[in-house]
Amino acid sequence: MPFFKRSRSPHAEQAHREAARPQRRLRLLLVDENPTARSVVARRLSHLNYDVVLAENGFMALNLLVTRPVDVVLIDMGLTLLSAVGTMRKIRAANLAGNACFVMIAGRLDSQSTIEALAAGADDHIVKPFDFDVLDARLRHLCQRAEQIGALSRHNAELDARIARRAVELGETREALREMQVDRARLVSSIQALHDEIERLQSAQA
Questions:
Q1: d(CA 64, CA 54)
Q2: Using one digit for the tens of pLDDT, what is the confidence trace for 161-171?
Q3: Nearest residue to 139 (alpha-carbon basis) of 160, 153, 125, 156
Q4: CA 199, CA 206: separation in Å to the nearest integer?
Q5: Is 121 left (phi over 0), alpha (psi -120 to 50) or beta?
Q6: CA 27 to CA 53: how far, in whole Å?
Q7: Residues 57 and 41: beta-carbon distance below 8 Å
Q8: 13, 56 in Cβ contact below 8 A?
Q9: pLDDT digits (tens, 9 = 90+) for 35-72
Q10: Distance of alpha carbon 37 from alpha carbon 30, whole angstroms
Q11: Which residue from 12, 52, 89, 198 lies 20 to 30 Å from 71 (Cα-Cα)?
């Protein structure tokens, strides 16, 4: 079964890779029960600047993610021991992938499974045989979007925390102002009482 197709000359392909190469390597977990597919995809993605971790089934993927955070989880839809959708759901339920993107590898005639995966929350899918340059572009786009969403979420969390701190500070300020108003009223009352006492004494002396 073919897993990729060439759409560029070797020189053009190399130039494209060099131009698109990011500053850091993306971490990718490939889950595929086919050893040949794992080997081919891992080798090509490694050349495209990915650190690839391999899992031969969904259960092994769960174990690997406990100690190895990744940016992308690439799952073949042909998994049998634990289905691709089941693998994705278990990973997310266990909160093992953080903000990682889930991409499904589907067969050309497996549209129903693809629809099921997308409905279950997969971020994208790619159909075999696929072009690795297209896969690379899609994965990097997904990761960039995930990073932007993550940055926005962190910014919103920081903003919420700032608002909460300001609310506390405002409450403390209002309480201090109330206490100052009470103290002022007491002081005014004391001054008025002193003034009345002085007037009484002056009247008594007269």
A1: 9
A2: 777 777 777 77
A3: 125
A4: 11
A5: left
A6: 8
A7: no
A8: no
A9: 999 999 999 999 999 999 999 999 999 999 999 999 99
A10: 10
A11: 12
